[in-house]
Amino acid sequence: MSECIDTILQRKSIRSYLSDPIPDTEKQQISEAMLRAPTAGNQMLYSVIEVESAALKAKLAETCDNQPFIASAPWVLIFLADSQRIYDFFHYSGVDTLINSNRAPSAKPNEADLLLASCDALIAAHTAVLAAETLGIGSCYIGDIMENYEIHRDLLKLPQYAVPITMLCLGYPTEQQKNRPATPRLSRDIIISKDSYRHLQPDEAKSLYDANLPPNPHFFEGAENHGQHIYMRKFSSPFMREMRRSVHVMLENWRED
């Protein structure tokens, strides 16, 4: 097996870090790898905010579903889906003149642009993750950065067409985290189908995440099985309700003329 594939297969989320800072030389290597990530039309429709302020990290630990380890992460990166930069580029390139002279139709970023920029941002983020992994630096994705949009917009001084899609916490893992087994993933036959979408059979669906169950599972109060537990703990949870509310506001703000 190649070293690259082995690194990918061994990767797991790390939420506890040594206090050692990440050297600038290694940050530079990770950043250079990230900037080579695949991107739609070489437009690089993403931006990255490097969070250095301890106070800002502490605030993000609170607003991102109260996760204290965010505040202690040596390196925190926020990835934005960013159509603002290219929209500004068009403005300063005189595209308004083209539109006003009827040589080009008027167009503003919409949901399609947001999805495309989100793809760019996430591909860049995972390229950074894999580059960090090769250097012995662990990472954890924080999707909760999509919660509390109004707060994060103000904290990070975000313009209309730049929104937070994911956040990465990076650092050298503690010994306990190094030795912790990786969480099982769904099998290949569940994820990959041929030529068209395949609905799971009832028995497959019922046992979908059984590999993640401990020997004596304790389900969420009121849940009778693993599916109900995941629905209550994650899908219909307060933090997911907040994320849905927040993303709705984000989309409304993006659509505004």
Name the CATH homologous superfamily: NADH Oxidase
CATH fold assignment: NADH Oxidase
Q: Class in CATH?
A: Alpha Beta
Main beta sheet, described? 4 strands, antiparallel
Helix content: 40-55%
Euclidean distance between termini CA atoms: 52 Å
- The fraction of residues in strands falls at 5-15%
Give the overall shape, derived from the CA principal axes.
globular
Low-confidence stretches: none
Order of helices and strands: HHEHHEHHHEHEHHHHH
The strand count comes to: 4
- Proper CATH architecture: 3-Layer(aba) Sandwich
Number of helices: 13
Which strand order do you get reading across the main beta sheet?
1-2-4-3
Q: What is the SS-derived class?
A: alpha+beta
How many domains, in number, for the residues? 1
Protein architecture, described:
The chain is an alpha+beta fold and 257 residues long. The chain has one domain (3-186): 3-Layer(aba) Sandwich (NADH Oxidase). It is 47% helix and 11% strand. It has a 4-stranded antiparallel sheet, sandwiched between helices. α2 (24-35) packs across α7. The model has no long low-confidence stretch (mean pLDDT 95).
Descriptive tags:
single chain, NADH Oxidase, 47% helix, 11% strand, globular
